UniProtKB/TrEMBL annotation:
This is Kinase. The keyword Transport does not apply. It comes from Mythimna separata (Oriental armyworm). Belongs to the inositol phosphokinase (IPK) family. One of its GO terms (cellular component) is nucleus. Keywords: ATP-binding, Kinase, Nucleotide-binding, Transferase. Coiled coil: none annotated. Its EC number is 2.7.-.-. GO terms for molecular function: ATP binding; inositol tetrakisphosphate kinase activity; inositol-1,4,5-trisphosphate 3-kinase activity.
Length: 434
């Protein structure tokens, strides 16, 4: 028997769950549940042909691809094919470092520029302009290219180039000061992608141009989405304001690139009859259902039926006119009071009835504010909202010298015409707010 005493076995401490874990059934946090910082990928970004290109050069010479390339890091690579595209490189470089107020304002309306790099694709090396991918993280990107201005050739163009440009999209440019080289749209009802190229754009004019824009906005056969229109107009009005007063640059053959996510539009606008969630289109007010419990209406004038204006009551026997009634009928109606407060008082003179449904009106107000708040406090990891507009294609842009600083009327008129169409569409949705 040893004189060395054996220490008593150490009892493990029993860990008790907190009141929050007990009440809300929260699992105990361990090392596997603890968030760890993401390790940046070390592999080079993947690059492929850009499948969403709706206009511009997309042809292939033998195995040399001349279209846009899409990079997995959220950028687009635009090949420098023609000598004129060196002017686009110069434009982006000068714009990025300019202190001119008009050019600094323009920086917010063009895609972000990341410089020029050489890259080999399909065995052919060439220079590429690296630009921001505006469709990044969009599930169903809808894209429209709108070339701005009646004149789409620059001062250095040859006579043959001028003749060709005068023929292309002739009617559309004469009527609207812009043309539509192409667009693609995902239909909300089917989810299918529809593409419209240059051949379609060259044929449309007159009302067909407005119909094409409505088609792009998923507004054929249904009401347009006010939230989407406000997303676009918030950017279009900014571009319009800039175009009306800037004298620093002349933009020939530049385009407005419109992009939005049809998946977000579907989330905003579908199932209108089923719910009045803060979507962009007003939902049909739900009718009051009959009570499940039978109520004896023998002692009441209520018939148990509802019309669009409220309950239907039983007809009562007519009451003969009394002398007091005859006396009141002899007085003429006093003239209406004219006051600047009349319209304001009329707007407040609502009661909670079948004709003045406060819940429906409040849902419309929330819808309108939702679109505006999207512009002010967008919390998505992508820097762009789900609908935006940018100016692109600056191969034919010319900076004005001091003695040449005048407003670019060609670009301004095209933007004004395009904005006017969107403003007309917005007025169509006025029933979606009070």
């Amino acid at each position: 028997m040893s004189d060395v005493s054996v220490p008593p076995a150490r009892r493990s401490i029993r860990r008790q769950r907190s009141i929050y874990q007990v009440h809300y059934s929260i699992k105990r946090q361990d090392s596997e549940m603890t968030a760890r910082p993401l390790v940046p990928p070390t592999s080079p970004p993947q690059i492929q042909a850009y499948a969403l290109q709706v206009a511009g050069h997309k042809s292939t010479e033998d195995t040399k691809y001349l279209g846009l390339l899409q990079c997995s890091n959220g950028t687009i690579m635009k090949p420098i094919i023609k000598p004129a595209q060196q002017r686009e490189v110069h434009f982006y470089s000068r714009l990025a470092g300019s202190e001119d107020p008009a050019l600094k304002e323009l920086q917010t309306s063009v895609p972000k520029y990341f410089g020029v790099r050489k890259y080999s694709y399909n065995g052919f090396e060439q220079d590429y302009i690296i630009l921001e991918d505006l469709t990044q993280r969009m599930l169903e990107p809808c894209i429209m290219d709108v070339k701005i201005g009646k004149r789409t050739w620059d001062p250095l163009a040859s006579e043959q180039k001028i003749a060709n440009e005068q023929i292309k999209y002739q009617l559309s440019k004469q009527q609207y000061s812009f043309c539509i080289p192409g667009f693609q749209v995902y239909k909300l009802s089917t989810g299918k992608l529809h593409k419209y190229g240059k051949d379609y754009g060259k044929r449309i004019h007159g009302q067909a141009v407005k119909d094409a824009i409505r088609n792009y906005l998923n507004g054929i056969g249904t009401s347009l989405c006010r939230a989407l229109l406000l997303q676009f107009l918030s950017e279009l009005w900014k571009i319009q304001k800039w175009a009306r007063r800037q004298c620093a640059v002349r933009l020939y053959s530049a385009s407005l690139l419109l992009v939005y996510d049809a998946a977000r539009l579907r989330e905003c606008c579908q199932n209108l009859e089923l719910t009045a969630r803060a979507g962009c289109r007003p939902a049909t007010p739900a009718r009051r259902r009959h009570s499940l419990h039978g109520v004896d209406s023998s002692g009441s004038n209520f018939s148990g039926q509802l019309s669009s204006k409220g309950p239907v009551y039983k007809k009562l026997q007519p009451v003969s006119l009394t002398p007091m009634t005859l006396t009141h009928s002899s007085f003429s109606t006093p003239p209406p009071i004219s006051s600047p407060w009349s319209d304001a008082l009329a707007s407040f003179n609502h009661n909670h009835s079948f004709e003045h449904n406060y819940e429906n009106k409040l849902s419309k107000i929330k819808m309108n504010y939702r679109a505006m708040l999207d512009q002010l406090s967008y919390d998505s990891p992508t820097p762009n909202p789900w609908g935006t507009v940018k100016i692109i294609d600056f191969a034919h842009a010319f900076f004005n010298e001091e003695e040449e600083r005048t407003i670019d009327e060609n670009f301004r008129d095209g933007v004004d015409s395009f904005v006017e169409i969107f403003e007309c569409f917005l007025r169509e949705t006025d029933d979606q707010i009070i």
